[in-house]
Amino acid sequence: MLLARTLAKSAAPPDECDEWDQPQEDEFKNFRMEGLYDAMLDVCEMLGGINCLQGALEDLRVHVPACAADSDRWRQVEGCLFFVRATARYIPEDDTSVVPPILVLGPQVRYIGVEG
Questions:
Q1: Are the beta carbons of 52 and 44 closer than 8 angstroms?
Q2: Which of 17, 21, 37, 101 has the most Cβ atoms closer than 10 angstroms to its Cβ?
Q3: Contact in structure between 80 and 59 (CB atoms under 8 Å)
Q4: 93 vs 36, 41, 50, 90, CA distance in Å?
Q5: Are 52 and 90 spatial neighbours (Cβ–Cβ below 8 Å)?
Q6: Phi-psi region of 112 (alpha: psi -120 to 50; beta: other; left: phi over 0)
Q7: 53 in Cβ contact with 91 (< 8 Å)
Q8: Phi-psi region of 71 (alpha: psi -120 to 50; beta: other; left: phi over 0)
């Protein structure tokens, strides 16, 4: 589970991402989709989707409330949600242990508006 949590943490955009130009953003997107995504799928294949998502759920339970207090914490939430999205195919349709608690956390994520 530690490996899965490390991958989710690696998927979080770094603090300086707000200052990136388009090529830097594209490079990070490629890193996530080409490298991390495949690694996440491999880990879920080995450990099982529920085991992997339990780590993401634990992290979300910490980061979602923290995000409400500090809007800069959105990056950690986003990294966890990217992991959830990437590994969802490994969760049985009848799961009640991980998916419902993750869905409950969704509405608690504080919206951070986009300037523009």
A1: yes
A2: 37
A3: yes
A4: 24, 17, 11, 9
A5: yes
A6: beta
A7: yes
A8: alpha
Which tens digits make up the pLDDT trace of 57-92? 999 999 998 887 777 788 999 999 999 999 999 999
What does the alpha-carbon distance between residue 57 and residue 101 come to, in Å, rounded to a whole number? 7
Per-residue pLDDT tens over the stretch 8-66: 899 999 989 989 999 999 999 999 998 899 999 999 999 999 999 999 999 999 999 88
SS3 string of the chain?
A: CHHHHHHHHHHCCCHHHHHCCHHHHHHHHHHHHHHHHHHHHHHHHHHCHHHHHHHHHHHHHHHHHHHHHCHHHHHHHHHHHHHHHHHHHHCCCCCCCCHHHHHHHHHHCCCCCCCC
Give residue 14's identity as a one-letter amino acid code.
P
- Break the chain into its structural domains and give their ranges: 2-12+21-108
